[in-house]
Amino acid sequence: MRAHVDLPLVVDRLSPVALAAQVTDQLRDAMRGGALRAGERLPSSRALAALLGVSRTVVTDAYQQLYAEGWLDGRRGSGTYVADVTIFPDLVRPLEPRIPWDPTDPFEPAGPDLLDLRPGRPWVLGYDVAAWRRAWRDAGDAPPGDTPDPRGHSDLRALLADHLRRARAVPAGPENVLVTRGTGHGLDLFAASLLRPGARAGVEEPGYRVARNVLRARGAEIVPCPVDDQGVIVDELPDDLDVLYTTPAHQFPLGGRLPMARRERLLAWARRTGAVIVEDDYDAEFRYDVAPLPALYGLDPARVVLLGTLSKSLSPDVGLGWLVAAPELLARVAERRTLLGDRTSGPVQRAVTTLLRRGDLDRHLRRMRLEYARRRAAVVETLGPLVKGDTAGLHVLVELPEDAVGPLVEEARARGVLLDTTARHHHGPIRVHGLVLGYGSASLADLRRGCAVIRELARDL
Ligand SMILES: Cc1ncc(COP(=O)(O)O)c(C=O)c1O
To answer: What's the 316 CA to ligand 1 centre distance in angstroms?
Structure first.
């Protein structure tokens, strides 16, 4: 152990940052960066004050702050030492991340000159300004609440249950609904409340990377479950899953709609194996020229947890969704949520309550269905037989030969069109090659232009 170290500290009297804070920050940086090591002795406050030309209080304040943060170890009477911070490992070195770093994620922002045809974003400019303002006025009229109900506001839960009954024929009452901040959050609450560490979680392959990341971050072991153009392949599901995350209304990213017979088989599999199914119903409000199919939850409410969101029907920026489950499961999620100190914003809930109560959300959905039907028609018209998975939602699959995808994406980018590939959504070998084309957020004219670029580039294949 070295008895003493020389510290390259400086103080700037002209800086707006207090002198004690300057000393604290520099010492903390030195310890975090390894210039000061565990067990090393710091100068006495008197010596350091003299060295820096500051009052002794400046140094004692800095030391006290660092004691409080756990960086320093004081042995009374014998000096000030750098603490053995291995007991605070997350202060000095990153924990082993449960989610591996992925250089292709997050999405790069599109920038003003690029037309962004990547999936995941709705047409947010189509909202009714007056209805939106009214909703927020109503939210502001109520005083802030003091104790958030972990299940969400009761009037919102009743309205959401009603919405689910009408829009998705889901037999739910308020006792089945817990208000979340969106699908990813609902899945996180489910995993934190109901999954043991090491639980085997089936995730569609290719599939929604957020679902995979969330389950993994909560300690689940991910089991990739193959999908085809109709959705998850039930006959290939292993028997030892604790949970299966699936997108039956519009498989992400390939776009399949799980046929009725497969839904029945999937539920029979879950009943036989004891697995819980998490049904991500993210864009189910939008379907085109096809009859509705019942949600899995409606077919077997005891086996299925349904996750819904306003991210597609209104905007991800609102941050509101719902978890629908049997009351006993819901009670466990609610209880765990309180333990985690987690909640959904009260004012957001009140604004959404107004949108639902006044019928504004229904009207918005009706308008958006027309908007998206037009956009989807433009995509199909321009790209013809290349398009798959187009009967629902806000994105389609454009299947392409394997070696064509990279060059096409690059050339499209050079022409100002930003595209996403199926490769990004695979976690094992890439089985389906092509583009995942989002048509939610572009204007009709821009969308036609972007699709024309793709068609032109694909013609040369
Ligand atoms: C498969 C899937 N589920 C859910 C969502 C929405 O998630 P959230 O409600 O967390 O915004 C998306 C958004 O792109 C998605 O692609």
So the answer is: 8
Where does residue 48 fall: left (phi above 0), alpha (psi -120 to 50 degrees), or beta otherwise? alpha
- Tell how far the Cα of 311 is from the centroid of ligand 1, in angstroms: 7
If we measure between CA atoms, which residue out of 459, 305, 390, 432 comes closest to residue 119? 390
The whole-angstrom separation of Cα 224 and Cα 237 is 9
For residue 153, how many C-alpha atoms fall within 13 Å in the half-sphere facing its CB? 22
The 10s digit of each residue's pLDDT in 162-198 is: 999 998 889 999 999 999 999 999 999 999 999 998 9
DSSP for 214-237? HHHHTTPEEEEEEEETTEE-GGG-
User: Looking at residue 83, what is its pLDDT?
Assistant: 83
Which one-letter DSSP state was computed for residue 320? -
pTM here is 0.81
pLDDT at 434: 97
Residues with CB under 6 A from ligand 1: 120, 182-184, 208, 247, 252, 280, 282, 309, 311, 316, 321
